[in-house]
Automatic annotation (TrEMBL):
InterPro entries for the chain: Sig_transdc_resp-reg_C-effctor, TrmB-like, Tscrpt_reg_LuxR_C, WH-like_DNA-bd_sf
HTH luxR-type domain span: 257-322
GO biological process, one term: regulation of DNA-templated transcription
Origin organism lineage: Bacteria, Bacillati, Actinomycetota, Actinomycetes, Kitasatosporales
A Pfam family reported for this protein in Swiss-Prot or TrEMBL: GerE
Lineage top rank: taxon: Bacteria
Name listed for the protein in its UniProt record: LuxR C-terminal-related transcriptional regulator
UniProt xrefs under SUPFAM superfamilies: C-terminal effector domain of the bipartite response regulators
PANTHER family listed in its UniProt record: HTH-TYPE TRANSCRIPTIONAL REGULATOR TRMBL2
GO MF annotations, alphabetized: DNA binding
Length: 345
């Protein structure tokens, strides 16, 4: 049955077939559906979008959309992390072999250097200006780090305006935190329909991709060095990574999904999931694009809302509330008697 379903429904939870979409939507609206309704769409059970009702095995209840989204994003993040490691290994290997043949002239007909190291901000800016001048179709960017500073937005404004003037389409990915930056909102208002922006809990490191032909990624932690990539396979791979993240991201014009748990915001739900994975405060802050102080403030509110007196107890409460993504249904949070739930933020 599993093999048959996979053959007829070759898709994941992020792109359901039409029949699966109808049955899952009905289950979410009504709270459950008869088991016979899901027989034509075994993909819903295989993807754990539906599961048996423990009170009546003839019925199926839906996994909450919030948990499905958390599961998808976690899977994508793991894939992208593995991809980044593979790209890094490929770059190191290519540079090693390129060094061995450094005295050999490139074959006739080759187009420049596949991987070029740009050392210094001036060289990086010059290379990006050059790529901007010849770009004709689209620019894809990933911008980590939370709220964008005015200086960062101003630095690239001349390139963005030049691209808009030529009708180039731009798509930008940010973390959810970037929604709170007035500078970004002003920038998007200025650019109008030329730029489309979406956000995620977490994004990969900075990426700028012009016309699917040249990409720029950081080469060190302080971004004073960059790699200019023109190898078709590498550029195509980075484009695929961007498209997968884009499909899961939320448009900047749309609100973030509600957690369904009173007193816990979307950001605190993300923090809870990272805490459940065992990450330290500094790592959580970096991955979500917030300061360590802000991360700790959210952790303190989580502890208060869930009635946890210690980090160990907080981990237990997170699991009980279903915030670690391990349960099929999200339970109500355990509130310590005598303490009110803070307003959802």
């Amino acid at each position: 049955m599993a093999g048959h379903g996979a053959e007829e429904h070759p898709h994941g939870a992020d792109r359901l077939c039409a029949a699966g979409d109808r049955v899952y939507s009905r289950a979410v609206r009504r709270g459950r559906v008869p088991r016979r309704d899901a027989e034509p769409v075994p993909c819903l059970l295989e993807l754990a979008l539906l599961h048996p009702d423990p009170d009546d095995m003839d019925w199926l209840v839906p996994t909450s959309p919030q948990e499905v989204m958390t599961r998808l994003l976690r899977g994508v993040y793991d894939e992208v992390s593995a991809s980044q490691r593979r790209v890094g290994s490929a770059v190191e290997a290519f540079e090693w072999y390129a060094g061995l043949g450094g005295r050999t002239a490139p074959p006739a007909g080759t187009e420049g250097t596949a991987i070029r190291v740009l050392d210094g901000l001036a060289r990086i800016q010059a290379a990006m200006d050059e790529a901007t001048q010849v770009c004709t179709t689209e620019v894809l960017t990933v911008q980590p780090g939370g709220i964008r500073r005015e200086a960062e937005l101003s630095e690239g404004l001349h390139r963005a305006l030049a691209l808009r003037g030529r009708g180039v389409r731009m798509r930008d990915l940010y973390t959810h935190v970037a929604r709170h930056g007035q500078g970004l909102l002003n920038y998007l208002e200025l650019m109008g329909d030329a730029v489309e922006a979406r956000t995620l809990d977490e994004v990969v490191d900075r990426l700028i991709l012009f016309d699917r032909t040249v990409a720029f990624i950081p080469a060190n932690s302080d971004r004073t060095m960059a790699l200019e990539l023109r190898h078709p396979a590498l550029v195509a791979y980075l484009g695929t990574v961007f498209e997968r993240l884009w499909r899961l991201a939320i448009p900047l014009t749309a609100p973030l999904p509600d957690t369904g748990i009173e007193g816990i915001s979307h950001r605190e739900q993300s923090i809870a999931a990272l805490l459940a994975e065992g990450h330290q405060d500094a790592v959580i802050a970096e991955r979500l694009g917030i300061s360590v102080r802000t991360a700790r403030a959210h952790i303190a509110r989580l502890s208060e809302t869930l009635g946890a007196a210690s980090r160990t107890q907080l981990g237990v409460r997170i699991a009980q509330a279903g915030l670690d993504g391990s349960r099929h249904t999200v339970a109500s949070p355990v509130i310590r008697p005598g303490r009110g739930s803070p307003t959802a933020r």
